[in-house]
Write a structure and sequence with these properties.
single chain; Aspartate Aminotransferase, domain 1; 2 domains; binds pyridoxal-5'-phosphate
Length: 368
């Protein structure tokens, strides 16, 4: 039996290259709390990503929760149903009411045209997602935020290395949150980060991720433990050395899929959102009614031959029990997200995926 193919496979650099990092940790006995690898990774990521300040975290979910705390967000936050559930969970963890609005049919990102109608006196912020690494309409969103005096926190879990019309997409909004989970383009096994625009905010976030400690004896806020360990930071430093190669390989796979799928009736490859530099984090297709079989049938048939795509994002966040009772969670409020959720299939894409597998997948899809 052939080895199964999953939607992603974490990129791991050669083990031998990691040993010297471990030796340094064993020598120094510094395991966490902002050690040398942690500091070095923050510096190198700022340079690589083209951002001013970064706060490393143990994962993106804790980073999202902390980002909301750092800006003292309360009341209601406008967000998208078309995302991984952690986006909305971060709001509930802060006692904030999520208000869901529909997405744009081309990018599946939160549609700025729907934001204003959802604003109430309780609204304090907008939390959009750069879905699949495609930039949101950052200018339109900022304009609304400025008009209504709202904060913008981007869930940028998919957007490592992505550049829009004016440099890194991570420089938009008040804060952006990255995920370095094993399934993401750049991973530290588990990990995440908040990108912030100024030193003052970085200091506050660094306090919040360390129990609210300032120095030895003072605690200024009910902070959490969100610190990234030295092992994870070391993995990140090593990953960074290989990231450009990994992204180039993803780009080639993306191009091959597009070429091979372009003439199949009922299969639509999601367009990019005009990014200058993409990261090819996902390869989403929409399976519509012109295709001979349903999306779920295609998903199952691929699984039967050992290929495991994923229906990101199905179900919508608004279908989970802790959200579905909210007025904004009704399907009639979210027709585009609902339709996309019923058609979406993310095909396998990762640096080690052989081109022969891409061909096998596209030929199988063409043959239904
Ligand atoms: C992966 C992901 C998260 C959560 O990231 P973790 O690092 O696993 O906590 C949040 N939002 C989105 C959109 C994600 O894809």
């Amino acid at each position: 039996m052939k080895k199964p193919i999953y939607v992603t496979q974490p990129y791991l650099p050669p083990l031998a290259e990691f040993i010297p990092y471990l030796e340094k940790i064993w020598e120094s006995k510094i395991l966490t709390n902002g050690g040398p690898f942690h500091q070095q990774l923050e510096k190198e990521l700022c340079e690589y990503l083209g951002v001013k300040h970064i706060c490393l975290f143990t994962n993106a979910t804790i980073a999202l929760v902390t980002a909301l705390q750092a800006l003292r967000i309360t009341g209601e936050v406008i967000t998208t149903p078309y995302s991984f559930v952690a986006t909305a969970h971060s709001l509930l963890w802060n006692g904030i009411k999520p208000v869901f609005v529909d997405v744009d049919p081309n990018t599946l990102n939160l549609d700025p045209a729907n934001i204003e109608a959802a604003i109430t006196p309780q609204t304090t912020a907008i939390m959009p997602v750069h879905c699949y690494g495609h930039p949101c309409d950052v200018d339109a969103i900022q304009k609304i935020a400025d008009n209504y005096n709202l904060k913008v926190i981007y869930d940028a879990a998919h957007a490592f290395g992505v550049q829009c019309h004016c440099g890194s997409v991570l420089n938009h909004g008040d804060l952006s949150v990255l995920s370095f989970h094993a399934t993401k383009v750049f991973n530290t096994f588990e990990g995440g980060a908040i990108i912030c625009p100024d030193e003052k905010t970085k200091i506050r976030i660094d306090q919040l991720k360390n129990f609210g400690h300032v120095g030895e004896l003072t605690v200024v806020a009910p902070g959490i433990n969100g610190k990234m360990s030295e092992i994870n930071a070391a993995i990140g430093l090593l990953q960074l050395k290989h990231i450009d190669q990994a992204l180039a390989r993803r780009q080639a796979i993306d191009a091959a899929y597009r070429q091979q799928l372009k003439d199949i009736k009922g299969i639509l490859c999601l367009k990019d959102a005009g990014e200058k530099v993409a990261n090819y984090a996902y390869f989403p297709i929409l399976v519509n009614t012109d295709y001979p079989i349903s999306r779920d049938m295609l998903n199952q048939k691929l699984k039967d031959i050992g290929i495991n795509p994923r229906r990101y994002f199905y179900p919508l966040i608004t279908e989970f029990p802790m959200y579905r009772g909210l007025p904004s969670a009704h399907k009639e409020n979210l027709p585009i997200a609902s339709s996309a959720s019923s058609q979406i299939l993310c095909l396998p894409i990762y640096p080690a995926l052989p081109m022969s597998a891409v061909e096998e997948i596209t030929q199988f899809i063409a043959a239904q």
